[in-house]
Amino acid sequence: MHRITKTQAAEPMRTRVITSCTGEKSVSSSDQLTLKDFRRGDARVRARAAALGDLLAPAEELYTGLQHQRLMRGVGAARRATDIEVDLRILSAGYGLVAAHQRLAPYEATFNGMRRKEIDEWAQTLGIPAAIRAALAEPCDLCIVLLGSDYLRACALDEHIRLGGPTVFLCGKHAAHRLPRIPNLHPVVLSNAEATTFSCGLVGLKGEVAARVLESLANNPEHLGAYLNDPQATVANPASPESGPNLRTRRAQHERQGR
């Protein structure tokens, strides 16, 4: 079997992770932004953020919920590896889709619990469907999406989205049924069984599974082919998957599918 050589490793694996904001944050303030501030527009948000200047933090450091904490363990492992690039983006119900290092003010806003129509309208106002489509279309070797049902609804995904590479959605059973059936989109259903396997509550489960996948890839990028052969099966044991096509072969396969 062809293996990735040191020369080939100079071209790193391109990994994208899209996760959601969490209610728990590292910075808090009695004067934090609220949904009302965001609804009043960008000028209001900028003015309020300027007043909280000392409390602004990079998005990846702002969120401290269990899913985010566990995910960042894997992101850290991937960043320490020399042959993986990680593009982390976070879907916020206040700011929209943000880059990991974008500085944000402390705030309180969530899609969870909103009525469906309200989610649809507010997501459009934030430009989330267009931003998600653009992010998913960017070339990558693996994209992992960790979004709950209400955040997935905000993305307004349909069969017309274009994927820049194999894309794995970690989600519940009902959310998986609502995902479009298109090539290179792989729903991975997580349930109480996986929570028991990983000794992890459901709240942090997506982050734990994504972290284990990233840690395994950081240890050996050739594991990628095995994950994509059967993402659902390898969730149970992401540390030691069976062999599969190497990175270059996977890239060539995706390019042929996109033609």
Question: Can you tell me about this structure?
Answer:
The protein has one domain (8-23, 59-100, 111-258): Rossmann fold (3-Layer(aba) Sandwich). It is globular and about 50 Å long. The chain has helices at residues 35-39, 42-51, 59-62, 66-80, 116-126, 128-137, 149-155, 173-178, 192-197, 202-219, 223-229, 231-234, 247-258; strands spanning 13-20, 33-34, 57-58, 84-92, 96-99, 103-104, 107-108, 142-146, 167-171, 185-189. It contains 13 helices and 10 strands. It is of the alpha/beta class and 259 residues long. Residues 1-9 and 240-249 have low confidence and may be disordered. Helix 4 packs parallel to helix 10. The strands form 3 sheets. A 6-stranded mixed sheet has the order 5-4-1-8-9-10, sandwiched between helices.
What is the fold's blueprint, element by element?
Elements: E1 13-20, E2 33-34, H1 35-39, H2 42-51, E3 57-58, H3 59-62, H4 66-80, E4 84-92, E5 96-99, E6 103-104, E7 107-108, H5 116-126, H6 128-137, E8 142-146, H7 149-155, E9 167-171, H8 173-178, E10 185-189, H9 192-197, H10 202-219, H11 223-229, H12 231-234, H13 247-258
Parallel strand pairs: 1-4, 1-8, 2-7, 8-9, 9-10
Antiparallel strand pairs: 3-6, 4-5
Helix pairs in contact: 4-10, 5-7
